[in-house]
Amino acid sequence: MTKSPIDMNYNELDRLLDSLLEAEKLPKSIIYKSDQINYRRRNKLGIMIKAFIRLVQAEIFYMTYIMKRLRPLKKSKNIYNSLIKTGCLKSLRTYLHLAKIGLTDLMRSMEGGFDNKIFTHFAVATMLYDASFDVPVCRKYLKELDAFIMRDIPIKTKDEFTALFIESVEYLKIMLDETTFETFKNYVKIEHISQLMSIYQLSDKTVSKDSLLKITFAKGGIASLVVMRIMVPHMNKKKRNAVFELGAVLQLIDDINDMKEDLEIGIQTLPNQKLLNYNELKQLYFGTVNNVITKCDIDPYKPNGTLDMLCWFAEAILEKRYGRYTTKVP
To answer: What is the pLDDT along the chain (330 residues), one digit of tens a residue?
Structure first.
């Protein structure tokens, strides 16, 4: 690679993303559609009780593991205060809540499990990486992170921020087997390119439907897949693709939930640009859930906490939020 991705234009990033997805044999689009979920769900009260219990467990996990891991960063008060002010810590908290609340049963059903220490290091490294995009005082690290992720060039800056990031990555390298760690690195490259491409969503130029689809699917798909991959290292190709596609559609649903906020700050998404209608979104979601059930060998007649809560959350967002902020597309 002769040119750093951070210096590439949109078309160059687009071609690079295509090549990375092809190398990992991950889909560029979602073809699964359905009118209903072929899955027996728990009643709503049962889902809410289980979600509440998981929420308490996730909060205990956050205070016990994440906050302890972030203590060294408090020495850099300007950075730590900026992470709080810009909502990075809040986003991390929400992210790990959703992972620990929603993904644990899916991990177990695929012969994996939730490792607290691995997830802690992964979550902290992810938050610091996101901060290099979202927090003004942290953007000085972006070029080094770009070189580290894409070309394995060591990070030279030495402070609390980089030390914490490097320690977390090194922990993952030690704890994951070589093949899983290499796959993890390849997935992070895809996430990095999709993040760089997502900057164009803030452009004053209209982004096409195909471009928004590619960015959304790559971002959401990899975000779900990378967590599942480190917790379920031996997923086969069909399971990896099914998780990737589910994550892509969940990113669409997240964009629906954030539609009002995204419009206010000028971020272009498929829902707030009215490029997807309600029925298409619902069919995509139902289709990908059915695909996960089939490809991941999940018993559709046995309630599964992950699918229970995802179905409940997704339908609530689709029904209550999507119609509120947009007009349905014909």
So the answer is: 578 999 999 899 999 999 999 999 988 888 889 988 888 888 888 888 888 888 898 899 899 999 999 999 999 999 999 999 988 888 888 877 777 777 888 888 888 888 889 999 999 999 999 999 989 999 999 999 999 999 999 999 999 999 999 999 999 999 999 999 999 999 999 999 999 998 888 777 777 888 888 888 888 899 889 988 899 988 888 999 999 999 898 888 888 888 888 888 788 888 888 888 888 888 998 999 999 999 998 888 888 888 888 888 888 888 777 765 544 433
The token pair that represents 5 in the structure block:
């991705």
**Domains parsed from the chain with CATH numbers:** 5-325 (1.10.600)
Are residues 2 and 185 in contact, defined by beta-carbon separation less than 8 angstroms? no
The encoded tokens of residue 173 equal 């390298």
Cβ count within 10 A of residue 322 = 20
pTM > 0.85: yes or no? yes
